[in-house]
Amino acid sequence: MLLRFRVTNHASLRQEQELSLIAERPRDGRVERAVPRGDHQAVAVAGIFGPNASGKSNVINAMVWMRAAVAHSFAHWAPSGGVPRRPFALDRDAGVPSTFVVDVVIDGVAYEYGFSCDDREFTEEWLYSYPEGRRRKLFERTAGEPPEFGRSLTGGVRTMARLTRPNSLFLSVAAAQNHDLLGRIHHWFDRCFRSATDHDLADRLRFTADHYLSGAAAGEPIMQLLRYADFGIGELMLAEAELELEAEHRLLERALRQAMGERAVRVESDPTDRVRLEHRTEEGSFVLGLAEESSGTRTWAGLLGPVFFTLAHGTLLCVDELDARLHPNLTDALVGLFQSPDVNVNGAQLVFSTHEPALLGHNTRTELGRDQIWLTEKGADGATALFPLSDFQVRDSSENKEKRYLVGRYGAVPFFDERILESIVAALRGGSGDGTTTEGAGPGREEVA
């Protein structure tokens, strides 16, 4: 489980910002998991709220970027390609490193893993464990110096260090060399951390279709989740021609792996072309292609596989703009799957960004505690500040958090400059923009109702 995530100098996140899933205090009615060898509980849900361009999506993006660096830096980044980071752009000093850190629990042990990088290389990387509640160094790496290894970390790590390029992570190299312990840390990033953004919809649709159509145990629950949204859909299927094409792709993938190894490029088709949804009405059954469905249906279909996988395995799902193209009640219901102890029996976690203030109100099926609500706003320097609602004196049970949020009591809401609006109205009336009317402006001189 994820305990904390910290990031510095990524996109609008200029100074260090921290997202914590540590509960402020235990609370009945929601999923919480005990932190090993500690007195704390970790929550299952954290929502990030804020106005447009406040940086809430950048928090999700920073988490996804860290995952990508761990998963791909050794296997897929070009040796001379540097580090494709996204530093804060409104800073004259482009050489400031970017830093990413997670505190996670894996197999009952807490770990802190992090790294810093500039445009050329990883300048630092470290991993600590807390098996007895006290920090134990596993490794520390600084650019230009040999790595330092703790006494408990064995298994050819010095040989692996020689294989590590300046722009690859040692953790990625060790996992590729099948190191047992480091491979488990890598596995958390690669397999136990999924994301849902606008950029990976096709991958999510493919993931959903593959799991449903494989005949595995996930098939029926995925179908039930599709029906749960009440879109009038009775079945998910592949077009017959696409089934044959899918089989050809499998054969081609197998041949490529035999010839080139496991790193061969995957042969993929566009899931929006092959997936079909059956609608059952009083007039009978009708099959539509995914491209013919509403954007809300496509969004929900793309979430089904990741949502079920995360709930089934007790892993982490990060969703950017959870409310986009979904009804507020459906967004509320989705959050409720993770918040409910009756449903989320494996302790899965959901981190999401949203514009939807209704999730803060009393009329939701799923009430978020103040330690689960995070806010973003930008300062005069264009940098994002991330802070929890627990920074304010708010009573979870009686406070109308939605109303207070919308009127700006917690910040993190848009600011509307009424002087700009007056200038726009003057222009619409044919004025000069300074509140005066220009002669001869024709119909624009008339009063606007």
UniProtKB/TrEMBL annotation:
Domain ATPase AAA-type core: start-end pairs: 46-360
GO molecular function list: ATP binding; ATP hydrolysis activity
Keyword Ribonucleoprotein: no
Pfam annotation, one family: AAA_21
Keyword list, A-Z: ATP-binding, Nucleotide-binding
Record's protein name: ATP-binding protein
Organism: Streptomyces lonarensis
Upper lineage: Bacteria, Bacillati, Actinomycetota, Actinomycetes, Kitasatosporales
